[in-house]
Design goal:
The complex is a heterodimer of chains A (about 110) and B (about 160). Chain A is α/β, with parallel strands linked by helices. Chain A is built from four helices and five strands. Chain A has a five-stranded mixed sheet with strand order 1-2-3-4-5. Chain B has about 160 residues and is an alpha+beta fold. The chains are: A alpha/beta (about 110), B alpha+beta (about 160).
């Protein structure tokens, strides 16, 4: 397993600190399990901190989109924080910048929730 | 004198671990051929996507089917073939992942990424009846050639004597 995820609460918002690679297999599954677990606990305002994620493949991108959709269906919001250059470029070329709310400052991300 | 082509091939099981194995193998070849970090990233990602495509769409995750990976290193490019044992597909039938209606799709970006990251990309009917992805990256110009012009790429192709 080359992905680790821990989460911490910042008021009504939960920040998930992720490190490693979000790829096909156990890594994508861990991200799914983490987000679904938060939704089960009624934590629907979520920031994925990707500062230590330097690699995402198409399965990982699909998992991010799946998480976004699941959170939205639960009436919440999912935002991305601290994209590394490679992840930023991927989000850019796949046009997902038009989907995700992306932040480079954690305080700004926390205060952007309605 | 005909230019030498180095050829390497491996048959992979239809399982998730094959994706990492294929990526690692191609990365070693790419690094030895002199590709820089960014190109290695693009090549590694493209190989991942090719094998994911074969694993999931081509072989339908059926363990009795195989994935055939081949690498050709010619005098000017690295060519990668990923062949599955499925029923094949046409690129024309692949939805555009950048279309507004597909942006929230959780799959379907692999072909797009391979096209974006490689210099050449095509899908042809394979000898197994499945799809064969053929993609290539031009070798970098060697900026560190010595006075004899031999350069320093350990696995760079040489002219046959």
């Amino acid at each position: 397993m080359s992905l680790h995820a821990t989460h911490r609460d910042a008021g009504p918002v939960t920040v998930v600190d992720i490190s490693g690679r979000i790829t096909l297999g156990e890594e994508s599954a861990l991200l799914r399990k983490t987000v679904r677990g938060l939704l089960d606990d009624q934590r629907t305002k979520i920031v994925l901190n990707l500062a230590d994620v330097n690699y995402i493949d198409s399965a990982g991108i699909g998992e991010l989109v799946s998480a976004y959709t699941a959170v939205k269906k639960s009436g919440g919001e999912l935002k991305l924080l601290h994209l590394t250059k490679k992840v930023h470029d991927l989000i850019q070329i796949t046009k997902l910048y038009t989907v995700f709310d992306v932040h480079s400052d954690e305080n700004a991300a926390l205060h952007s929730f309605q | 004198m005909a230019p030498e082509t180095k050829h390497l091939e491996i048959t992979l099981e239809t399982q998730v671990d094959s994706v990492n194995l294929a990526e690692e193998m191609c990365l070693r070849v790419a690094e030895a051929a002199g590709f820089g970090e960014d190109d290695c990233y693009r090549i590694g990602m493209s190989v991942r996507e090719g094998v994911i495509n074969a694993f999931h769409y081509g072989n339908q995750e059926r363990p009795e089917k195989k994935i055939h990976l081949a690498i050709d290193l010619t005098s000017d490019k690295m060519i990668i073939h990923v062949l599955d044992e499925g029923i094949g597909f046409s690129l024309a039938d692949v939805p555009d992942p950048l279309a507004q209606e597909n942006l929230l799709s959780t799959s379907g970006r692999g072909i797009f990424l391979m096209r974006a990251f490689m210099d050449e990309f095509d899908v042809v009917p394979g000898r197994t009846g499945g799809a064969e992805i053929v993609m290539a990256k031009k070798l970098p110009l060697d900026e560190h050639s010595g006075p004899n012009g031999q350069g320093n790429r350990g696995a760079a192709p040489h002219q046959k004597a």
